[in-house]
Design brief:
heterodimer; A: mainly alpha; 8 helices; B: globular; Spore_V_AE (chain B); transmembrane helix (chain B)
Chain lengths: 151, 120
């Protein structure tokens, strides 16, 4: 069976993805996670010395901590089944990827297992984030030096 | 005060819907989707468009993974403004250090305290 035939067969066999339903659940889940984040940043703004923009740092760290607990107790998986991308796209999904890989590979030891596999999925996000940030900042710096745009 | 909670919910939800469309319509894996969103956030910041979004939506813009790309670029550009080209390297993780440190630290702590049970 050639590749095209297989792809056609697979398309016919696999159940249709309920697109609208998935989108609604992703919207609600992602929106709720961001809403919780907004409450956390309000907490940091009113009880500590943070402004609207700097509050995002401790907020992100707190969300990562909460996601660690949810992942450790096996609850994040359930949110993921319900919310799809709504649970993967927020920073909690990044944390879930790191924490679940770390716990999963614990049996291989701390150095080779946990240390080596922690950034299995998250590593690609960091790599492409850093590379694109490098490219964008480089282009902008050169354009500013040439006097095309200003900071 | 109330309005930022509403915009946070809507903007955060919409970014997740974009992610869901990349999953279902473009048939991408989660890793590819997250990489595309990070790169998108980084490019948006290059045009100076991400900071206004944060002012508008608060955590709705800072919690999705796009803000990771934004803060990497933002740190790099802020240092480049001060120190020239070398600032692109030195400033890269300036803003986003808390996220990376928290992920590494909490990931390790979790691996010490939690036992693997099936797929998490």
């Amino acid at each position: 069976m050639d590749e095209k035939k297989y792809a056609k067969l697979e398309q016919g066999m696999s159940p249709k993805t309920p697109l609208v339903r998935n989108m609604v659940f992703a919207f609600l889940t992602g929106g709720t996670i961001c809403l919780i984040g907004q409450f956390i940043s309000l907490f940091y703004m009113s009880f500590f010395d943070f402004t609207e923009r700097t509050a995002s740092n401790p907020t992100v760290a707190t969300m990562i901590f909460i996601a660690m607990l949810l992942t450790g107790f096996g609850l994040y998986k359930k949110i993921g089944q319900f919310g799809g991308a709504g649970s993967a796209v927020p920073i909690t999904g990044f944390s879930n990827a790191v924490v679940s890989a770390a716990i999963e590979h614990k049996s291989e030891g701390y150095v080779l297992g946990v240390g080596g596999n922690m950034f299995k999925l998250a590593g690609s996000v960091i790599l492409f984030g850093v590379f694109s940030a490098f490219a964008v900042a480089l282009i902008k710096t050169i354009l500013v030096k040439l006097g095309v745009v200003s900071w | 005060m109330i309005s930022i909670f509403i915009t946070a919910f809507i903007v955060g939800g919409l970014i997740c819907v974009i992610g869901q469309l990349l999953f279902d319509v473009a048939k991408l894996t989660p890793a590819h989707t997250l990489c595309i969103l990070v790169v998108a956030g980084s490019i948006l910041d290059g045009f100076g468009l991400y900071e206004p979004l944060i002012d508008f939506a608060g955590a709705g813009a800072t919690v999705p993974i796009t803000s990771f790309g934004n803060s990497l670029t933002h740190g790099a550009m802020a240092e480049a403004e001060k120190h020239g080209l070398i600032g692109v390297l030195t400033g890269m993780f300036e803003v986003t250090s808390s996220g990376i440190s928290a992920a590494i630290l909490f990931g390790f702590i979790a691996s010490v305290f939690f036992k693997p049970k099936g797929k998490i």
